[in-house]
Amino acid sequence: MPKVLLTGGSGFIAAHIVDILLSHGFDLVVTVRSEDKGKRILQAHPDASKDKLSFVIVKDVAQEGAFDEAVKSDPPFDYVLHTASPFHFNVQDPVKDFLDPAIKGTTGILKAIKASAPSVKRVVITSSFAAIVNAKKHPNVYSEQNWNPVTWEEAMDHSNVYRASKTFAEKAAWDFVEKEKPNFDIATINPPLVFGPIVHYLNSLEAINTSNQRLRNIIQGQFKAQIPPTGTFTWVDVRDVALAHVRAIEVEKAGGQRFFVTAGYFSNKDLVDIIRENRPQLESKLPSNDSPNDLPADIYKIDNSRSKEVLGIKYRPLKETISDTVDSLLKVGA
To answer: For this protein, what is any one GO molecular function term (predicted)?
Structure first.
């Protein structure tokens, strides 16, 4: 079977990718930051043999040469799924702490693959809607054609630095392929807010992805007095994002393409309403039923047709996703 290197194997999206790759028959090596995380992944998949699932440690993806050894394998890798992103608690210098690591983390693995893994046919990179969105002037329709127009100067503002880092890192990947002409092609997966069940063997209530934190906050009563502004109104289920990554290596014509993976719109009020309907035992933690809904009537349109037509993604509905996510949070004590 084809062999895959999955970076950032203990991440929220990556943990779901592991399940899909194994169920599709791939041999898999994951990179993790520590021995403990690697062992937890193996223990959660007791049916997978050493040939089917193993791990290597890459402590800091932004370090020069971080992936030089990880990309070497016998038998060699056929594909790489790059979901790892630099890990920082404290951003004081936008360039040193955020932009450089994001860009170097992406170009670093591409350089390592070109130098030491000539068998790799395709690299799929986890990008983001952050690399598509134009918060200052939304277009009529968002699709893969759009790029965040953020400048390096604007990225020095801490409120812009995350979106800028995703934009510059993805652009750097496309530039690398154009200039370096490696043996592989690339595809990028660009999701907005990602909801979905947390993976219990890796996550606690404190260590969950940013999107799911708002669901945790709702069911813990933190929105009871007032529902905060939604912010970004587009969402997707983590299981659909994970499948998109795998389909992007399985489908030949996915190479050289970006994929805007989104199921549609939501508001924080929608989340509260679904929880109220499906989990009535949480009523005492929820804000009043007549709270306003801030989803704009004239919101921009979204075009996710490429992900459906090329990758064959059939998006889960919001009710299913929120219900499954809430159940997974309640299981770990929310």
So the answer is: oxidoreductase activity, acting on the CH-OH group of donors, NAD or NADP as acceptor
